[in-house]
Amino acid sequence: MRMLRNVPLDAAAFFEMTPDLVCIAGRDGYLKSVNQAVLDKLGYSREELFSRPIDSFIYEEDRPRTSREREKLLGGNLLHNFENRYYTRSGDILWLEWTSIFFPDRDLVLAIARDISPRKKMEAEIEERF
Fold it and tell me: 96-104 long-range contacts, Cβ below 8 Å, gap at least 24?
């Protein structure tokens, strides 16, 4: 366990306890690890998430744009505040805002997302009014 300014830092506990969606993905496009928030928000089991390519969970219209951003990420660019939509197991659509970094020495991506669905719904309602 590491200490951060005299505070014990247990990365595994942080990984599981944060309300943000935290994922570790491989260069191969498959999830390798997710926290409980991912399971709770998307509704899939770990087995379901790990057995299918990440792209299969992404809203179809967002796949080409997401793929382009993923290529930039794998090329060394930080992904910051990237928005796209995901299908939940129940068929709902969830808006997520991502920040991700690629670790080429391990061929892994660390990604953190927030559910921005309520904000997107409010934005759509405002647009309808004007």
Answer: 96/21, 100/73, 101/73, 102/73, 102/74, 102/76, 104/76
Name beta bridge partners: 84: 96
The amino acid that residue 125 corresponds to is E
Q: Which residues, in sequence order, are CB contacts of 71 under 8 Å at separation 6+?
A: none
Q: What is the residue-wise DSSP string for 40-89?
A: HHH---HHHHHHS-GGGGB-GGGHHHHHHHHHHHHTTPPEEEEEEEEE-T
In this structure, what are the phi and psi dihedrals at residue 45, rounded to the nearest 5 degrees?
-80, 165
Residues 20-25, mean pLDDT to the nearest whole number: 96
pLDDT at 69 over 80: yes
